[in-house]
Design a protein that fits this description.
It is built from two helices and 13 strands; from the N terminus they run αββαβββββββββββ. By secondary structure, the protein is mostly beta strands. The strands form three sheets. Strands 6, 8, 9, 10, 12 and 13 form a six-stranded mixed beta sheet that branches. Strands 3, 4, 5, 7 and 11 form a five-stranded antiparallel beta sheet that branches. A hairpin with a 6-residue loop joins strand 12 and strand 13. The two termini are 32 Å apart.
Length: 191
């Protein structure tokens, strides 16, 4: 579902729902309708918040009390739903597990509204083995000098589980952030 590719390859399109055409026309309009429909129907009431996101009601969760429960996003050490290029961005992932996880994998991916991935991080990629003890905990991912230089909405996918345990969560579009371009030279002009 790479909407950037669809836009570059097609001039016109149709949007189907249950086999029926619900919209047709210029590709940019059809893609916008498709994305809005996905936001409303498939992304479990995403809201811009103060930087604290309740994940317990995500549509892909099997158990509201287990796995990822909450995410905090900090931009330059402040809770925020807006992140800026060049800033330090932290993701605090709060979880609960009903058993010890001896081969835990926790990760995030950041993508835009066209499903183009910008960043993917997990403890395995970072070479860090995680053993998570039964109960509540927090895992932190930090991105220094945030590298996205566009004004756009970003969607965060979360991955949580044990490679040896069948309850592995993949929570698509669990968090929505605004990405804004900062004046990195303090000149009041964008580079």
């Amino acid at each position: 579902h790479n909407m950037a590719a669809v836009k570059s390859l097609c001039d016109r399109g149709i949007l189907l729902e249950k086999g029926k055409i619900v919209h047709h026309g210029i590709i940019s309009d059809v893609v916008e309708k498709y994305l809005l429909k996905n936001l409303k129907n498939n992304k479990f009431e995403l809201e811009i918040s103060d930087g604290v996101f309740d994940i317990s009601k995500h549509k892909n969760k099997n158990n509201q009390d287990e796995g990822v429960i909450k995410v905090e996003v900090l931009c330059n050490s402040r809770l925020s739903s807006t992140v800026y290029n060049g800033s330090n961005v932290e993701f605090n992932i709060f979880y609960n597990t009903t058993r010890d996880l001896f081969s835990a994998e926790v990760g995030i991916s950041i993508q835009d509204e066209n499903n183009i991935s910008y960043i993917r991080i997990n403890n395995k990629h970072l070479g860090k083995e995680l053993i998570l003890k039964k109960g509540n905990g927090r895992i932190n991912f930090s991105i220094y000098d945030f590298p996205i230089y566009n004004n756009r909405k970003l969607f965060i996918n979360l991955y949580f589980g044990d490679l040896n345990y069948s309850k592995y969560e993949i929570l698509e579009n669990a968090v929505m952030l605004n990405s804004e371009v900062a004046d990195i030279y303090s000149s009041c002009k964008l580079p």
